[in-house]
Structure formats: C-alpha cells, structure tokens
Amino acid sequence: MGDAAWYEDGDAAGPVVRPYALTGGRTHYQGDEFDLVALIAAVDAPEPADDPPSAAPWAPEHNMILELCRTPLSVAEIASDLELPLGVVRVLLGDLLDRSLIQVRRPAPVAQFPSERVLKEVIDGIRAL
Predict the structure, then answer these.
(1) Whether this model's pTM surpasses 0.70
(2) CA pair distance 8, 122, nearest whole angstrom
(3) What number is the average pLDDT over the span 3-16?
C-alpha cells in the first residue's frame, strides 16, 4: 500500500487526519460514559467562537455533530454518519456537553423481571378465578 493509503482516491487534499488529532490527543471523555443508544439532541446556544479560550479545541466535526443532532440521534448513529470511531465521537460529544450545546437522553433502565415465585402466585391467582 505504501503512502497511497494516506490519501483519498486521487484527492490532492493531503493526508487523512488521524483520530487522535481530532480529539487533541484525548482518548476518552472525563464525565459519564455515553451509552451507544443514548439520544443526543442539539440545543440552541451561542456560536463556538463565543466560548472561553480555556475550552477544548473546536473541530469541524463538532459543527457536523450539531447539524446532525437537530433531530435526536443515538451515539452509534452519529459515529456511523460521520464515519468516525466511536471513541472519537464520544470525546467530541463530551466537548459539546461541557459547553451545554447538546442534551443527552439516557436510555431507560432495563426493567427487572419478576421472580419465579411472583409469577407462580399470579398464575395461581388467575387459576383461582
């Protein structure tokens, strides 16, 4: 393959950006983990240029995520649409969450199934009718 693997098909735009470059070398978000099925929705907020200088670096992918999330999407769908690794998308989502530019709707917890004893009591109760 050689150096050809680092370029798009016949595109003279230059090398493909490595995932760690998009996240400034960060490999994970410091806050809560983003679940694959958590829904992400963009929030109306000021432009990124209004952010304080101490904020995490802003990449074009941040804008792409905000555009995609005008309609709520899952974390997995965002990664798929952007064709980026899930870890990178989670870091970028963390940047947006820190700036209050997105809302995260966590998936509903899995319901606990009743115990076998409770099910037997229900069946016995139905039979008694």
Answers:
(1) no
(2) 63
(3) 52
